[in-house]
Records
---
Amino acid sequence: MLPRQFPLRLPRALAQASQRTRAVASDVAAVVLAALDVWLVVPEAPPWYSPWFSWLSVAALLLRRYLPFGTVLLCVPGFFFGWAQLAAMIALGSLAKRELLSWKTVVGASLVCVCRFILWPWVDFLDLTWKQHVLDAMYGVLVSGMPVAIGMLITVRGQLSARIRDLARSRDREKRLYAATVRAAERAKLAREMHDVVSHQVTLIAMQAGALQVGTEDPESREAAATIRALSTQTLEELRELVGVLRSGGDEDEIQPGLDEVDTLAQDGVAMTISVDPVDVPPPVSRAAYRTVQEALTNVRKHAGGARTLVLVTEAEGHLEIEVRNSRPRRGQAAFPSGGHGLLGLRERASLLSGTLDAGPTSDGGYRVVARYPL
């Protein structure tokens, strides 16, 4: 279990700034603070070299991202002979952030500590009491140790954050693998059930339809039996493909027909107009469009055999609109039982895609199905 984290939130403007912009702003702030530290403590009559070394230390901070150890070496004279204490501390912190606890960091910290402990000129240093020497030694350790600790803390915190992100990604990947294993087991089980039960029943329907087609003398009954046999055979082919995908563990969406195959559903008496490029339609909407036309044409064959049918697939106001309209059915057409489950399934599919589906009779005695899916 990973501990709950409370990340520090930066101001929105700073968080949205690029890394280069933040780096430039940090360099400018470091130079300004170091310059103020030098300018505010300049004595009245300093030696001629002290200001030069101090301002050199301030200018050397511009190199701290590229030559951190060299920057520390350039800042040491300004701290020892002048007043550039803050510049030396900033340079040492940058070195510790880059190198962590390496020999360069140890050397840089030792030099900064010596600069804080030893007072220049030597006469002033020798005049100090032992208590002042002890106090200067304590401040030397503090001045050199604090930048090292802060620099290492920043680096270690970044490494720890990266490690936590890696652990989170590993945990998510493990969850996905576990879910994929469970889905594979369920798909295999579903494939066995579909093959053993559904395909067996559909095969019997096809066989019975073939026997009826051969044994009957009624032309309409023979045509209906041939249609049933053809639909059963097509259903078996699609079922075998789906079972194969379920057993292989592939994505069933890869074999689902889409809008580019809608024209294969057209038969005699069906006029189809498609004014939408199938490539521009999202795959879920494309599959839903195919199933809508398929179900609507199936209902026409079941309840309005021989009726003229019009299929329109258009795009309007960012939506894909599918309209299937049929005329009045022929008289004497045998009625097939229907429970309305096909249209109910289409409405559920449309609802999942944030679409709508309307179906109902028309004024001329026909029927109309209209589905709208957002693109």
---
Amino acid sequence: MDSSSNSPRVSTTSVPGVITIDGHSWSYWAFVWLGLGSLLPFNFFITADPYFRYKLHDPTMPNSTVSRLELSYENAVTICAAVPNLIATIFVTFVCIPYIHKYRICTSLSGITICLLICFSLIFVDVHRWREIFFFLTMILVMIQGVFCAILLNCFFSLASTLPSRYIQGFVAGQALGGVFVVVCSIASILFSNNISISAAIYFLLAIFVLLSNLLTYIYLEKSHLLQIYSSSIQEINNEYEPLLHSSSSTTEDYQNSNNNNNSNNITLLALRQRLLVAYKYTKWNFFGILLTFICTLSLFPAYMSKIQPAYPSINYPNTIWTDRLYAQVMTFLLFNVGDTLGRMISSKIQIPSLLKPHLLFSICVLRFLFIPLFGLCHFPNTNGFPYVFKNDFIYAGIVLLFAMSHGYCNSLNMMYAPRRVHAQLSSTVGALMLMALTTGIFIGSLLSYGVVAMYGDAKEPDNQHFQ
């Protein structure tokens, strides 16, 4: 690689004073709220796992016996969400990028809301006689919302990448807050409701409310002073006919022969493939940093970490609600999402390593794989004879927080640095490229999680059938 590709190309903007103009407005929090809603549908499908198991239970079987559909729900949801999401992300990255349009965003939000409305309506339908149909219908809805989420995230990341870095940091922080929001709702449902159907109805209504508010937030954000300032650059990005009007050969020749001050115009004239290659050339360390960050995280969370048990037997606890129903929710899901949020918030104030040291940031992302053997020393119900070393819940909580904060910090830094390493007119392309790394990392990490669980040996299926 040439030396030029190692040095960041900090993007410039036509309005350098935008942070001063818009720094104290609600636009930053609008991106936080949009980030919160962007991953909410998948989180709700996962968190409502006991409700779907209740729906899929065969009433002719004993209550303690788990049916085939119940056992396959978690794996099916993961695959049905990850595969269409990855395919759609690759498609919109290589075919439709860069293209930010309000109708694409509004259609995606509306489509996800309709999927959740259908799920909400099925809560009050007795599906015991057609459980297989209900199962496949649910998986179809998961696949549809996965496609819509890919399109939505592509637009939001591309949009946030054209703005100052604080806005993409706010968006990824909102995604972490979405996880906290879901877990808090989960804990509240455990404490205040034992009725699975009522808890599920509240869950889906909350998700629908957030998505509708996201729709209104974006419509208002589009007319905000912030986007009006950047309207010219966004309009340039939204020129959907650009790849058709300029052939690859002519744009490449123009790009290679230009050695004057018209570099920005030549970048604009690049065809889609050349834009992606140039964007990748300058941001590849951030691309692989995000990829490895999500592979490491998804290989452990939630498939492996949700099965870790309290450090001491439940006989030492006077109230088994903690060990049976709340331990995983608080010690794993809540702590992870809180730590993830803290890591993303810290990245807005402390940015070490700096933009000039992409190799060091990449090395930190690689070092996170040490958490795989570290969590193997916790109280996992394994059958392969791995040692149980950390016999204290506070040690496990500390490892979870460090794991989550490093995930949020590395993810946020890579997301903020990548658009700043290219010219402003390629920032939208970089945003979509980073989303492809994120989606690919989630897919590979989800598959790797089965290997991690099998490596340590999952002794049994969880016997908790309560709505979590």
